[in-house]
Amino acid sequence: MLKTAIATLALVATSVFAGPKVAVDTNLGRFVVELNQEKAPVSVENFLKYVDDGSYVNSQFHRVIPGFMAQGGGFAKDFKRLPTYAPIENEASNGLDNDAATIAMARTRDPNSATRQFFINFIDNDFLNYSVTNPGYAVFGKVVEGFDVVQKMGQKPTRSTRGMSDVPLDPIIITKMEKISD
Questions:
Q1: Do 59 and 75 touch, CB atoms closer than 8 A?
Q2: Which of 36, 39, 54, 85 has the CB geometry, 3.0–4.6 Å to 94, for a possible disulfide?
Q3: How many angstroms separate the most distant Cα atoms in the chain?
Q4: EC number(s) of the enzyme (predicted)?
């Protein structure tokens, strides 16, 4: 009886902190990210706007650096820059680290410039974390299924093209992206 009660409480405790999940289908396979609304509400809301409006579909992972990360969401297949909503506040001080399999907002040198581009860390990238001297990059979720698909991205040959480096030779395209749980 006590064992069952403890198991039930553990299940309830983990589900309280579970955020929405988004399935990302690519031409390399599917992966699922779980978002952390509790610690990154602004980033999660922003990301979900692009998921809900469908504009991540047919975008590409345009920057893939083995042993570092895969960045996408900002360019169509033809490298046309995709429209954005207003930039958001940087939430990098939320206590979530840029560890392997986490998803974070990409930005320019301006810490509060993130719009639609995101990246997934292949490894722990501590130098991207917030500190007193570093505004950091805001983590807002984690790949919870299919990280092997993400890792495949880092094994693809890249090139420089259109003024960008580390562009996959064979485009890695998001073919479908949808919220699969709230």
A1: yes
A2: 39
A3: 64
A4: 5.2.1.8
